């Protein structure tokens, strides 16, 4: 989401992880409000913060507690995005984990120690991008992590259809690739 704030699907996956007091009803209401405004969920969050700062509360479809929780989340994301512009990837990683309280959230899970080790491994991978500028490093890191995680389960011996990105298919040198639903907006 830091790399692409307009990614509403990713935003909805993280908006309440760790828990921030933003329930599914609030998320659904936020999505509906964004759609009614003809904008992304992230832009609707930014508008919500702007309206709260201007004390135009009548224009916000959220009660005090839900509106406050959404505003805090929005402000946190703005901080992350701003920090990503001029902070090396490892420092950004540490900042996000610390600011979001993700370490504590992860370690509170019964399988948290293993999950935390995986997160630390991601941090180690992030160190490989230290020579790049902050924005380039984040984009390259996310692309690399996505390629590894999505293609790890690919089994070339299975006779079946696999849904992957064109970029991932390129790396696998598949004999046949179908591109479905490509549209230019």
Can you characterise this structure?
- α2 packs across α3 (41-53).
- It contains 9 helices and no strands.
- 61% of the residues lie in helices and 0% in strands.
- It has helices at residues 8-14, 24-37, 41-53, 64-84, 89-99, 102-107, 112-126, 134-151, 166-172.
- The chain has 185 residues and is mainly α.
- The longest helix is centred in the middle third of the chain and has 21 residues, at 64-84.
Record keyword descriptors for this entry:
9 helices; 185 residues; mainly alpha; 61% helix
Q: What's a quick, concise take on this entry?
A:
The protein has 9 helices and no strands. The protein has 185 residues and is mostly helical. The radius of gyration is 19 Å and the shape is globular.
Shape descriptor reads globular
Structural Rg: 19 Å
Helix and strand content put the structural class at mainly alpha
Give start-end ranges of low-pLDDT stretches: none
What's the helical proportion of residues?
A: 55-70%
Contiguous helical run count: 9
Largest sheet: none
* End-to-end CA span: 21 Å
Rounded mean pLDDT is 87
Which helices and strands appear, and what pairs or packs with what?
Elements: H1 8-14, H2 24-37, H3 41-53, H4 64-84, H5 89-99, H6 102-107, H7 112-126, H8 134-151, H9 166-172
């Amino acid at each position: 989401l830091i790399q692409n704030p307009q990614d509403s699907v990713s935003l909805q996956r993280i908006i309440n992880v760790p828990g921030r007091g933003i329930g599914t009803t609030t998320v659904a209401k936020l999505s509906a409000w964004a759609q009614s405004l003809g904008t992304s969920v992230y832009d609707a969050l930014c508008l919500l913060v702007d309206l709260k700062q201007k004390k135009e509360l009548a224009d916000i479809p959220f009660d005090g507690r839900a509106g406050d929780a959404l505003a805090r989340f929005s402000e946190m994301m703005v901080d992350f995005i701003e920090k990503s512009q001029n902070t090396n990837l490892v420092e950004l990683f540490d900042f996000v984990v610390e600011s979001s309280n993700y370490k504590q959230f992860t370690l509170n899970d019964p399988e948290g120690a293993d999950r935390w080790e995986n997160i630390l491994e991601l941090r180690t991978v992030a160190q490989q991008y230290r020579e790049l500028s902050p924005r380039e490093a984040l984009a390259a890191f996310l692309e690399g992590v996505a390629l590894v995680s999505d293609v790890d389960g690919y089994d070339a011996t299975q006779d079946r259809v696999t849904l992957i990105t064109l970029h991932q298919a390129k790396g696998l040198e598949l004999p046949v690739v179908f591109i479905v639903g490509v549209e230019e907006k």
